[in-house]
């Protein structure tokens, strides 16, 4: 039986904060692997996201070099809105012997009671919730949350997109190979 961490998101673009969260969860919870799950259409975002082919290529570049990080295209291939319940249901069907742990930031932990089919989802996975300084999350009754301390890293994909659009440096926010891909494809510019 493997213990597999799952980190979902648009990864538009994937940044060093995503990688630090994945590695901290892997180490703190003794996970065998962490799978990155780019969403096709995130249920909680209304803005258009960058084409999935670009986001897949960027995640692939970001995790290259860490054999314990994997790219899963389950949500991309399914198309439509990417609900975590649907993803976990399918993963448990495909890998019934494995344990899955869904990795979340503190802000998402507090929103868990509003997630699609949260009661059924809680039977399929445990959640790894990252604590942030100055941010308290509440433990929802219906779910198991494993709290993990997070080093303070204040990077977001939206901040990176904005900096690129303003022709500002994103060095040290992204893996160099992701930065080069964005420049090569002209992503996030007007």
Automatic annotation (TrEMBL):
Pathway: Cofactor biosynthesis; NAD(+) biosynthesis; deamido-NAD(+) from nicotinate D-ribonucleotide: step 1/1
Taxonomic superkingdom: Bacteria
UniProt keyword Nucleotidyltransferase, yes or no: yes
Domain Cytidyltransferase-like, chain residue ranges per copy: 6-163
Annotated EC: 2.7.7.18
CDD domains: NMNAT
Stored InterPro entries: Cyt_trans-like (IPR004821), NadD/NMNAT (IPR005248), Rossmann-like_a/b/a_fold (IPR014729)
Entry keyword Nucleotide-binding: yes
Range of residues in the leader sequence: none
Keywords, in A-Z order: ATP-binding, NAD, Nucleotide-binding, Nucleotidyltransferase, Pyridine nucleotide biosynthesis, Transferase
Family listed: Belongs to the NadD family.
Function: Catalyzes the reversible adenylation of nicotinate mononucleotide (NaMN) to nicotinic acid adenine dinucleotide (NaAD).
Official protein name in the record: Probable nicotinate-nucleotide adenylyltransferase
Species of the source: Scopulibacillus daqui
Lineage: Bacteria, Bacillati, Bacillota, Bacilli, Bacillales
Name of encoding gene: nadD
């Amino acid at each position: 039986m493997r213990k597999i961490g799952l980190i979902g998101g648009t990864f538009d673009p994937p940044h060093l904060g995503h990688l630090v969260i994945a590695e901290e969860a892997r180490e703190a919870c003794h996970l065998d692997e962490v799978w990155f799950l780019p969403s096709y259409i995130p249920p909680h975002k209304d803005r258009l996201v960058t084409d999935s082919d670009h986001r897949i290529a960027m995640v692939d570049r970001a995790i290259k070099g860490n054999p314990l990080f994997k790219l899963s295209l389950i949500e991309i291939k399914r198309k439509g809105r990417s609900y975590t319940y649907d993803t976990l249901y399918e993963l448990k069907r495909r890998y019934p012997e494995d344990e899955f742990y869904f990795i979340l930031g503190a802000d998402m932990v507090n929103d868990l009671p509003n997630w699609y089919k949260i009661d059924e989802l809680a039977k399929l996975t445990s959640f790894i919730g990252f604590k942030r300084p100055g941010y308290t999350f509440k433990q929802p009754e219906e779910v198991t949350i494993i709290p993990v301390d997070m080093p303070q890293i204040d990077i977001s994909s939206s901040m990176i997109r904005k900096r690129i659009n303003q022709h500002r440096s994103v060095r040290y926010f992204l893996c160099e190979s992701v930065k080069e891909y964005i420049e090569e494809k002209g992503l996030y510019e007007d």
